[in-house]
């Protein structure tokens, strides 16, 4: 029987894989937010009862969004190979994984954002309309600002989901924690690596979740009346 | 100042407004009242430029504002300050921040914005709540902040849609006081849509009664109360109870409406004195419309010149609404 991997080596494996995961997930989250939030805003504006109702545009956007969300990530990963090559100049490695991760997350973020924005009460939005505010100002100062805590939480949910998706990055040589657990841990029967990766993933996601919950709370200016 | 001309609006074939015409003089308060489903909300939403009427016009200073788009529409919206029905404040902004919103839309620079917000907080009596968030304010305070916000960009018209629904009577008073002060101190023309006749009683100069999308009564409150058949008078004046036993001992029984300090205080004793008749109040009572005392009394008169006394009361400014002979008169 093969001796277990020494702990210092396990740690260095974990450090390297964590770096790759954070890189892939971090960059794709930023991209997904940059495109997903406007998508969500657009969906909400064109929705029935929105500020710029437009059934045709809304239906097309909704269709594309749901199509994107229904695509299994592993399929997206391979299907987008040529697009990835066009954008990042190669189709393997951590950077290459960012493209499908971001593309997969944009519709996800879009739907989350639209749901959150639709929760802003219509009276509040109309009150802003009657002040003569432009649509852009209402989006910024009312829709987004009023739901900022929920939006921050939604980005947190997206990060956790992307960590999950990124486990499949190994398929195109992206590395990361999921890849470490599967390739080094599971496939090579290295229980120590497998279980330390699993434990570390649990800790990591908990920490990330906690950070986003805190940030959301900090952004929430409502102070419940303490009469 | 603001006129509504022949406004119609229907939703899926149901007519909410059937040719509504209204006229609000500059610096006055018009109360639009009526039962649920009369079209009050639709009218308010049209005037707030949140809903486009099917036909008709809404003129502010003579200019029709119903057909505008884009930046012209936004500019027109700034002329009409709106206190929407229900909670409408941004919960992530302080009271001061909420009041500042229309000033931001109007592009007012920071320092001027802050001083204007200060003036408005003072107007609504909530200077100490500038930094409070809506969740920390009471319903009445939130509504006063909503009034301050509506007034921020110096609109010429203030529209309040059910500003006192969901408020208790005491808080209602504080919100109405603020609306009244807006008219008195800023000279703004106020249009208040309400189901509560108490609002009309307290702050309205004029009233329009809406029923099934039509204006069925429109005029000065103090004129309409003298009109026996008007909805306004029956809603605002004290009831006169039928009391046949009391009434049977008089030659004449009549209902009379008196408006103003002079009429309420002096008219009846003077009539009794001039015509040498016995004149008693057998029913009704005294109320107050805004600052004006208004009475509706049922009078019992005894004496030969009772008819002349009633006639004189009518000529002197009282409205004699029901003059009938007592039982003895009928027998004779």
Structure notes:
The complex is a heterodimer of chains A (227) and B (332). In chain A, 76% of the residues lie in helices and 0% in strands. By secondary structure, chain A is mainly alpha-helical. Chain A has one domain (7-219): MetI-like (MetI-like fold), CATH 1.10.3720.10. The mean pLDDT of chain A is 91. By secondary structure, chain B is of the alpha/beta class. Chain B has 2 domains: 2-233, P-loop containing nucleotide triphosphate hydrolases (Rossmann fold, 3-Layer(aba) Sandwich), CATH 3.40.50; 238-331, Alpha-Beta Plaits. In chain B, 38% of the residues lie in helices and 30% in strands. Chain B has 13 helices and 14 strands. Chain B is elongated, with a radius of gyration of 24 Å. The interface between A and B is medium-sized, with 24 and 37 residues.
List keywords for this structure.
heterodimer; A: mainly alpha; elongated; B: 332 residues; Alpha-Beta Plaits; 4-stranded antiparallel beta sheet; 30% strand; disordered C terminus; MetI-like (chain A); AA_ABC_Transporter_Permease (chain A); membrane (chain A); transport (chain A); MetI-like_sf (chain A)
Summarize the structure.
Chain A is mainly alpha-helical and 227 residues long. Chain A is built from ten helices and no strands. Chain A has a single domain, classed as Orthogonal Bundle (MetI-like fold), CATH 1.10.3720.10.
């Amino acid at each position: 029987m093969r001796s277990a991997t020494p702990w210092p080596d396990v740690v260095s494996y974990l450090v390297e894989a964590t770096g790759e995961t954070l890189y892939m997930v971090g960059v794709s989250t930023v991209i997904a937010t940059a495109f997903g939030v406007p998508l969500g805003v657009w969906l909400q504006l064109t929705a029935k009862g929105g500020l710029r109702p437009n059934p045709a545009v809304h239906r097309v956007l909704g269709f594309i969004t749901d199509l994107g969300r229904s695509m299994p990530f592993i399929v997206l990963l391979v299907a987008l190979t040529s697009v990835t090559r066009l954008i990042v100049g190669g189709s393997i490695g951590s950077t290459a994984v960012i493209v499908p991760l971001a593309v997969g997350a944009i519709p996800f973020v879009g739907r989350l954002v639209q749901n959150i924005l639709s929760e802003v009460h219509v009276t509040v939005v109309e009150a802003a309309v009657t002040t003569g505010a432009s649509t852009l100002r209402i989006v910024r100062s009312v829709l987004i600002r009023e739901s900022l805590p929920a939006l921050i939480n939604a980005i947190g949910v997206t990060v956790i989901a992307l960590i999950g998706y990124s486990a499949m990055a190994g398929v195109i040589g992206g590395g990361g924690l999921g890849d470490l657990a599967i390739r080094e841990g599971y496939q090579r029967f290295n229980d120590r690596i497998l279980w330390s990766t699993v434990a570390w993933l649990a800790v990591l996601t908990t920490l990330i979740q906690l950070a986003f919950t805190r940030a959301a709370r900090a952004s929430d200016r409502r102070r419940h009346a303490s009469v | 100042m603001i006129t509504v001309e022949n406004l119609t609006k229907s939703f899926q074939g149901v007519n909410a407004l059937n040719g509504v015409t209204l006229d609000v003089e500059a610096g006055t308060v018009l109360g639009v009242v009526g039962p649920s489903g009369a079209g009050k909300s639709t009218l308010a939403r049209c005037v707030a430029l949140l809903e486009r009427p099917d036909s008709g016009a809404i003129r502010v200073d003579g200019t029709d504002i119903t057909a505008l788009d884009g930046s012209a529409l936004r500019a027109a919206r700034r002329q009409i300050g709106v206190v929407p029905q229900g909670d409408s404040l941004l919960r992530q902004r302080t009271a001061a921040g909420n009041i500042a919103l229309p000033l931001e839309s109007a592009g007012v620079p920071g320092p001027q914005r802050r001083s204007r917000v200060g003036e408005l907080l003072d107007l609504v009596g909530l200077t100490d709540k500038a930094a409070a968030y809506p969740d920390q304010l009471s319903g009445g305070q939130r509504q006063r902040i909503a009034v301050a916000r509506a007034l921020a960009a110096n609109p010429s018209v203030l529209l309040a849609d059910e500003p006192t629904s969901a408020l208790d009577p005491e808080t209602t008073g504080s919100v109405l006081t603020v609306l009244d002060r807006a008219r008195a101190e800023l000279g703004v023309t106020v249009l208040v849509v309400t189901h509560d006749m108490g609002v009309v009683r307290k702050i309205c100069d004029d009233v329009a009664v809406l029923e099934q999308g039509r204006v069925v009564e429109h005029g000065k409150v103090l004129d309409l109360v003298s009109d026996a058949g008007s909805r306004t008078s029956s809603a605002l004046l004290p009831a006169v109870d039928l009391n046949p036993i009391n009434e049977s001992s008089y030659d004449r029984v009549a209902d009379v409406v008196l408006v103003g300090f002079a009429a309420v205080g002096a008219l009846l004793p003077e009539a009794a004195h001039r015509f040498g008749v016995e004149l008693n109040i057998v029913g009704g009572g005294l109320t107050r419309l805004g600052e004006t005392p208004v009475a509706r009394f049922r009078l019992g008169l005894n004496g030969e010149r009772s008819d002349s006394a009633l006639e004189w009361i009518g000529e002197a400014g009282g409205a004699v609404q029901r003059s009938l002979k007592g039982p003895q008169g009928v027998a004779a």
